[in-house]
Amino acid sequence: MPMTIARKNAFAPRKAATMGEMNVTPFIDVLLVLLIMLILAMPIPTHVTSVDTPAPDKTPPKEILSENVVAIDGSDQLYWNGARVSADDLRLQVAAASTMESQPRLRFAPDPLASYDRSARVIALIREEGAEGFSFSGLAAHRDFGL
Fold this sequence. Notes:
Elements: H1 25-41, H2 62-65, E1 68-72, E2 78-80, E3 83-85, H3 87-98, E4 106-110, H4 116-128, E5 134-136
Parallel strand pairs: 1-4, 4-5
Antiparallel strand pairs: 1-2, 2-3
């Protein structure tokens, strides 16, 4: 008796295998919609809780007394420690302060109405003369931007 070998037919149509996993895409879509609805339904906090803070000390610390203040008023006039100076005088003052062994800190306090160009030029002048300690003061006056 002849022996027959059974082989699979490579050209026969295949049966689709059943998928045993659940499709979770609609579930994720529903969860995202619910999350967006929850975010939109949250109330906006409109209450304010007042907190008592200590009053600021009006006496300046000892470090501030040794600092120099460069100020610009609303008409773009320069001041060195309250005395009106020209740009050349300010350059000499900053250069003299920069050559000291322990350089004093320079505080820059422009008026809210001072021009931006004049303020930028003064900052560049201070940097060119080699001042190391530099800080801005009076920034609370610029907080509102005229609103």
